[in-house]
Amino acid sequence: MKRIVLCLLFATVIVLSVYPASAQRYITLGVPTSLKLIEGYEGHKAAQLAAEEINAKGGVKVGNEKMMLKIEALDIRDGEPGVPTSEALLGIEKLILDKKIYAVVLGNFRSEALLAAMDIYSKYKIININSTAMTPLFQKKILNEPDKYKYSFRNCLDAPSLVGYISGLMNKINKDFSFNKVFITTQDVLWAAGTGALMEKWFKENGWTVLGFEKYPTGASDFSSGLMKAKSGGAQVILAIFDMPTSGILVKQWNSMKVPALIAGFISPLMGTKSWQTFEGKIEGAMNVIFEIGHIPLKTYMPSTQFYEGYKKRWKEELQSGHAVSPSYDAVYILANSIEKAGTLDVDKVVKAIEETNIAGAVGRIKFDKGHQLIFGNDPMNTALGAVFQWKNGRRVIVYPESIAEEKIDKPVR
Amino acid sequence: MIVYSMLIYGLINSAILALMALGFNLAFGISGVANFAYGAIYIVGGFITWTLISTLNIPYAISAISAIIIMGVFGALIYKFIIKRIRGLVMSEVIATFGISIVLLELLRYVGLIGFKYSLPVFIEGSVEILGAFVDIQRLLIIGLMVLIIIALYLFTHYTKTGLAFRGIAQEEHTSLSLGINPDRIASLSMGIGSALGTFAAIVILPLGTITVDSGYDVLISALSVCIVGGLGSTFGVIIASFIIGYAQTITAMYLAPHWTMLVSLLAILIILAVKPSGLLGHQKELEERV
């Protein structure tokens, strides 16, 4: 008996010496997303950058204790074609149960996956700050059952705000050049076609002539039919909304077919700084909506520039996305700030603190509405902000909103 | 003007489909192996060319030729080390080549080749006006190169010893054996040349846009649909099918709506399988059909 007690004492001493009393405790943040898509790939790096910055300053203060942040990513591939939502949800549950994550940042890519995942986050009481999916049904779901879905927030642009920026841009084009003939072309996926339909309605209500509305299947590599119709119809503006890789061909064809219309909208391959080289300068004059600033540095708003430069310094490459990355970085700061404010990791108290967030982020001032959606506007000191840039001689020049415009819009010379 | 444009862009679309399908068709026609890794080979060939140009600063022409040779050898090695052991077991061949395809494409993603920044330069800059329609020179080159490849393939299979051996194996493998033709060597060569043709198509077509991993699956589907409609193994059938599908897609996009174009090849496959399962000019299973 004496020998057993001695052995136990010895084992206790060994264990205590291996695990000192001051062992570091971590707050684990999950990043379940499509890591092989550019926004997921860069968004994950942005979250890592934020966690590293916070840890370098000593971590997150929880009451009297300092805790470090740890990022656990999982490629749930929900943004890739053919991956069922159910599979993405299994991945999220795996992160929650295996890695014991405290919260989720960046999160689901596609709206349908986000809407379904909200139930899982509620079930496990996991805070979710989504930075990618754009459906307005997100807010609706929260407003309908606020107690159940209070754990979910979204800190990126949503579809109605995108329509707001595009319609504002069209108003400006109309005012500057008296253009009022538009041809709409979108990818045949829910978010793009939906945004196109909302814009078609807006154009008709605001005195524009809509010459056509064509939807191209994902993977399409010839856009000549739509461009020919736009050209022969005398279109002054082509509104293009695409997030597929082959959509860069649209702009190359627009250039080679010498279509004398402004091309504007969201064409993901045209977003990053490397696009000019990729498309051999054939994108001169094309306009693109950056969903959140930070993806493009805004000289008049330092946090966006600091993030942009910090990312470049840390990862030795420039951002190429136009969506989700700066919000992913902000999401980590929102969480850290709210935990410190709440002084505890109690989820309900932290949720309350997130609802009251009012901090300067890479995307502008961060404040949430009652539907837990980040509020967007035109002044980064008061709200989050999207921007429209135009490719001018290899530079991305911000041309809208007017509050932050660096130069005027150039008309195409054909 | 729209009609002329439609005719020109329909021709270009057809040439692209033909170029994409010729390599797949050649390998199947000779070795009898449906190479489901073809789309992946197309994309890997594009990425190799991009890497040689952008990372190692090797001149475009040398990079392109190197990529064609590398992928050609790779195709032949696939046969030698994988397909040879399971040749004749159709399901095993499909599973093996599709497995290779997944491994290759996912490997590209794994090493970080994601995003939109990868593209190949066009051969000649600029565009020209034809019958009121502006067309970039690269697209016109695609038509010319398709014609050249078809002529080269014809000359190769009709006037060279290896080419005649190709045809011999395609027509009657056992009789060819009695003439001293080694079917495994020829099948391996056909897989190699098919892969080289796929890479050639990539180098010609990819400058129109960007190189992305997912396109590998699209290329396979395009090549497969053209070959099924034309008749697996028939080069002339592939050319006819390319023109039928290419023009049908362009006309559909012009007069119906672009999002219906994805149904064109599926519809063509359905019709051909119902009317003539061996394809327009295919001889596979033709005897069984007659019986």
Please summarize what this structure is.
Chain A has 414 residues and is of the alpha/beta class.
Question: How would you describe the overall organization of this protein?
Answer:
The complex is a heterodimer of chains A (414) and B (291). With 414 residues, chain A is α/β, with parallel strands linked by helices. Chain A is built from 14 helices and 17 strands. A seven-stranded mixed β-sheet of chain A has the order 8-7-9-10-11-16-17, with helices on both faces. A six-stranded mixed β-sheet of chain A has the order 2-3-1-4-5-6, sandwiched between helices. The model of chain A has no long low-confidence stretch (mean pLDDT 92). Chain B has one domain (2-214). Helices cover 74% and strands 3% of the residues of chain B. Chain B is built from twelve helices and two strands. Chain B has helices at residues 2-31, 38-54, 60-86, 90-110, 137-159, 161-171, 173-178, 183-205, 215-230, 235-255, 261-275, 286-290, and strands spanning 127-130, 133-136. A two-stranded antiparallel sheet of chain B has the order 1-2. In chain B, α3 (60-86) runs antiparallel to α4 (90-110) and α9 runs parallel beside α11 (261-275). Chain B is globular. Classes of the chains: A alpha/beta (414), B mainly alpha (291). The interface between A and B is large, with 42 and 41 residues.
Please give the alpha-carbon distance between the first and last residues of chain A: 96 Å
What is the topology, as strand order, of the major beta sheet of chain A? 8-7-9-10-11-16-17
The radius of gyration of chain B is 19 Å
Largest interface pair: A-B, 42 and 41 residues
Tally of structural domains of chain A: 2
Query: How would you classify the quaternary structure?
Result: heterodimer
- The tally of helices of chain B reads 12
Proportion of strand residues of chain B? under 5%
Low-confidence stretches of chain A: none
Shape of chain B: globular
The beta-strand count of chain B equals 2
Number of domains of chain B: 1
Distance between termini of chain B? 50 Å
**CATH homologous superfamily label of the largest domain in chain A:** Response regulator
Q: What is the level 1 CATH name of the largest domain in chain A?
A: Alpha Beta
Which secondary-structure class do the elements of chain B indicate?
mainly alpha
By DSSP, the count of extended strands of chain A is: 17
